[in-house]
Every structure is written in structure tokens, then in C-alpha cells.
Design goal:
This protein has about 550 residues and is mostly beta strands. The chain has 4 helices and 31 strands. The chain has helices at about 5-20, 190, 320, 425-430; strands spanning about 30-45, 60-70, 75-80, 95-105, 110-115, 120, 125-130, 130, 135-140, 140-150, 155-170, 170-175, 180-185, 200-210, 225-235, 240-250, 265-275, 280-290, 330-345, 355-370, 390-410, 415-425, 440-450, 455-465, 475-485, 485-495, 505-515, 520-530, 530-535, 540-545, 545-555.
Length: about 550
Amino acid sequence: MNLSKRKLLTIGILSFHLVSFSQEPKTNAPNISGNMEATVQYLNPDTLIGAVQPPSKALINAYMNVFYRQAGFKAGMRVESYSPAILGYPDNFDGTGIGMRYVGYENDFVDVTIGNFYEQFGAGLIFRAYEDRSLGFDNAMDGMRLILRPIKGVALKGVYGRNRYKFSEGRVINSSGIVRGADIDFHLNEILPFMKDKKLDITIAGSLVSKYQADNRDDLVLPENVGAYGGRIKARYGRFYSDFEYVMKDNDPSADNNYNYNSGHAALINLGYSQKGLGILVSAKSVDNFSFRSDRDESLQNVLINFLPPMNKTHTYNLVASLYPYQTQPVGEMAYQAEVLYTFQKGTRVGGKYGTTVNGNFSTAYAPVRHTSNFTTPDSNRVYYQTNLFDKADLLYWRDINFNITKKFSPKFNVVLSYFNLSINNDITKITNDAKGIIYSDVAVAEFGYKINKKHSIRAEIQSLTTKKDKGDWATMLIEYNVSPNFFFSIIDQYNYGNPIEALQVHYLIGVFGYIHETSRFTLSYGKQRAGLFCVGGVCRFVPASNGLTINFTHSF
């Protein structure tokens, strides 16, 4: 253990004991909680699907979070281990060591954290620090966060520090850039007495975030301080809901935009209506030149300061979610989404004895219009074009039309039928090397659930994807057997029966066994996994093909 880690551990232990002895145990009892996860892979080579066996043959990802609270004091840490990291994880995860640590204090007025923290302003358009272990994504801030609540209905946040770049040889390496930000939130119904009992509920807020990075280029004059700022408003009136957020960013030359000096913007609108049995959501997003990183030279998912929410439905079925997923294009897109959920009441002709639910969703994304008439050649400031808010071009990036029907036929038997029509521009998203232009595909899914008795149930899925491009048609079949509350078994077969190369018409067969006991979960799976994208909430990572054994264990305490 190096000197800095020994100092950190010593400070943490002393802090725990000082707080423990300074408080009455009956009224301020200490609380320790946490969770852990370990994933182990043993892989075999498979030349047919392009799977390779790493030199170590076995791979492991493991981490444990431990959180301590007593009275207003809080502290926590995470130990991580990648020896080496499981297949498909980013290369910047390696070794064993402390990946996160913090101390802090909070009461009704103040909440202060020193060390690592996660935070988000609004929808994340301007600032979002978060982590997702399954994706290998972590841009935790390392510095200080301060939250003040001076009066009821007012919250002020301030953040300062560097975000995590990678975990190398068992230690965290932060970005070279510094991030500073502030956010203020006003809930008018709590602040203004005359609005206290009003049916109209309004919250307004504003944010300012800036980054500093030294000018590291001799051929360009780069801004060392780049600011982003904006505001948002949320309103609810009875069954209606709306929120609007708009942010702007100063010129920010980077690898993402070919080092141009255009300013950027991002806007998000959500309008909703809900009542018993009916839900309606309409959304729109306008983004141009809004990649925001603490290091201008980085790419992929590295050192992102903000998050651009996806404007499309998050799918869970195998063929829909994994073959042609779409994620926001930070260089620019105009995106729209509409969704309706309606439940036909029990006892009606369509609803039947148990009710019937219908869900329809439409989402699309286009390139923005970039006006270049005044910029035939970039001016001396390297400004290339102008854009307007929600100004849509004809270049399609993505379109998804889908609907499903959920029907319960008896207390034991239910069916979900779904259809998806997908169009994705592979020239923009570059998700496959085997197609150009727009890939059109149709997916049909039938899901069946049957409850045998109080403990035993079975679920099955039949999926079909047809397309005239890429690797051709696919089919997936899944069957899952559950023995409540402890066991489950499943078999899934993803079959590329329409591949134009007959030798590559492969069955990707995986068997899974799982055991659950209270807060512990153990799963064991064996089989083939095709190469492709793995996405969660609009953030994706590429996973290469594999053939082998995967063991996963999780526990919380």
C-alpha cells in the first residue's frame, strides 16, 4: 500500500471512531451499508464467431462499496479490481485499488462532500457525474460538492474538481481539466405563500458550468476557460406535466467537432398527461455542437461533463436492444418522441375479464440544418456555420415505430405481443461494417407467461428480425423457468439464419442458472455471445464476440 492510500485509510478510521465516541449510541447509532459484485469469465477461442481467448484465459471484475453514516457525518469508499477486466470493458480499467472515497456532513441546511461524488443538474444537459458498472462508465468528480438549503423551497449546489478519466494499475487517474459548476433551484409553491395550496406547481432553476484546460496546441489559439449556462422550468397542473430546459455553451474546439469555434446549444422539452388508464408523453430535443468534456482531445465516453438523454424508448427485448441501438449524436441532432399508454378497463369488450393494455411509441432523429452561406470558407475565428433551434434537415439518423399489447387471459396466463419498425443510418452511427446507408428492419416479439402454482412459473419469448442489409435475418427464442423465491433457469438462442454467408448462420446459444437468497444473487451462464453494442440508458459500449463461462455474484448489506 503506497503512502497516500495509508494516509487516506488512517484518516477514515480515525474519523469513524471520533464520530462514534462523540455521539449518544441510542439516538445517533452508526449505520454501515454497502454492496458488492464480482463477475468472472473463462473464455474459449471460437474462430467462427471471431471470439478469442485472452492469454490469462480467466477475467474478473469486482468491486465493493461501503458507506458509513452517523448523525450528520457520512463517509464511503469503493474498492475495485480488474485482473484483467472482463471482455468488452474499456481498456482504462486495470488493477486493484481504491476507486472512490469521500467524507462529508449534512443537516437540514448544509450538505458538504469532500472527495468523490456524483451529481446532476436538471436533466444532465449541462452537468452529470454518474457511474454504471455494467457499462464500464464512471466520470465521478473528485473535489468538493456543497449543497445549501437556506430557506424552504430553495436549493443551491456548487461543484468543483476533476472528473475520473481511468483506473490504471490500481489507482484513479483524473482528467487534466478542472470543472466548476453552480445550480440554483426555486420551488415557487414553497417560497411564495399565495401559491402554497395552488393546483399549479412550478419549479424554476438555472445552472452555470465551466471547465479549465491549458492551451496545448501551437497551431491554434484555444480557449482555456469554456463556459456553459442555461435554465429550466417544470410545471404541473392537475394531470398535466411539462418541463423545458435550454443550455448554451461557448466555443469549445475539440476532437469531437474538428476543433471548430462554433458555440453550442441543447434544448429539451417534455409534455405529459396522465390519468387512471391513460398516459401521454410528447418530447423534443435540439442539440448542436454540444459535446462537453474536461479534456478536449478525448473521445468515446471519456471525461464527459454532461449527458444528452436519448429521445427514444429504452428497449429490453434481445433483438431490438442489441442489434441496432441508437445513442444521441452530440455533434448535432433534432429528435422527437411521442408515446401513448392506454388500458381498456376490465369488463369491457376489449378489456375482457382482466383488462388489456396497449402501448404505442414513435421516435425519430434528424441532422440539424447548418446554414453555411456566409461561411463558404471558415473565417479567421474558425466559425463554420450557424444553426437555429429545432431547425431540422432531411438527413435521417433514426426512426423507431413500435407498439405492444399486454393481455391477461386468466390468473395464470398472460401474453405480450410487440412490433418494432426500425430505421438507422449506419453512415452516422457506424454500428456495423457490413452495411452502408440506412438499415431498415422489422421485429416481431411474442412473450408468454404461465404461473404453474404459487412457486413455479414459466416464461417464453419468440423474436424475429428481418432486414435486407447487414447480416440478414435473425431469430431469438428464450425459455425461463422460475422456482420462487430462490431458483431460475433459462436458455436463449439467438440464430442468424439469414446471414448471406451460409457458414456464418450461427446459433448463439446460452444457458443460465441462477440462485437468490435474501440480498444475495448468484448466476452462472455458459455459451456464445455475438459481437455488438451493449447499451444502458442511451450510453453504449462495444462487446466483442465470446464463447465461455460467466459467473456473477452480487450482495448488498
